[in-house]
Amino acid sequence: MKLNKRQRTKLLEWIAEGLESGEINKRAAKHKPPFEVTRQQVDHYRKTRDVDLSKVKAQEEFTALKSGLALKVNRVQVLQELATQMSNDLHKAGLLWLDQVKGIGGAENFERVEYKEFNTAEVQQLRGVLDDIAAEVNERIKTHEVTGKNGGPIPLFNMDTWKQEREKRLKTIKDLEE
Asked: In DSSP terms, which residues pair with 100 in a beta bridge?
């Protein structure tokens, strides 16, 4: 199919984005006027316009890795905003304790009971966000060191020594039984 100037421009844009012919045809179907291209046409425009798909894709991946929430600083900022909002809810908006109402009884014996309830769910979520922030900035490294007696090295296990000591223990027990 022969393409007009607008269609050709769109096709080159989509090729530069790294789209394949099937993806291009989905977009082209929504174009006004709609059009369709063959794989050979796409290959022809790639070759004649010197579009290197591997470079395009590498550039897109590099951009994706260096923007938005892929950056630690942006993730921490979003988490800090969330933590601030939750903290404000709990302290400034007075939502640490929530007003609750229950009805007890029924008909003539119905009684309305008002009480305060600790906002456990939001406090737990705030603690989770704070933990996420700490993890993002490597503040909480969860490691456990295992050491020997008084912080020294762990002694190597010697099976022969263990067997000799076991024999001594068994002999002592046998002597005690007699």
From this structure: 115
**pLDDT of 57:** 65
The C-alpha atoms of residue 27 and residue 32 are separated, in whole angstroms, by: 10
The burial of 42, by beta-carbon neighbours within 10 Å (0-12 exposed, 13-18 middle, 19 or more buried), is given as buried
C-alpha distance from residue 161 to each of 130, 158, 164, 170, 175 (Å): 50, 5, 5, 14, 21
What length does the chain have?
178
pLDDT at 32: 86
Question: What is the residue extent of each domain of the chain?
Answer: 5-65, 72-136
**130 phi and psi angles, rounded to 5 deg:** -65, -40
25 and 11 Cβ atoms separated by less than 8 Å: no
Query: Residue 112: enclosing H or E segment and its boundaries?
Result: strand 111-118
Q: What predicted TM-score, i.e. pTM, was given to this entire model?
A: 0.47
pLDDT at 51: 62
- Chunk the chain into consecutive blocks of 10 residues (it has 178) and report each block's average pLDDT, rounded to whole numbers: 83 82 90 89 80 65 75 91 95 94 90 94 96 86 79 87 93 87
What's residue 163's pLDDT? 94
Say how far apart CA 11 and CA 38 lie, in whole Å. Answer: 11
Distances in whole angstroms, Cα of residue 117 to Cα of each of 88, 94, 114: 18, 12, 10
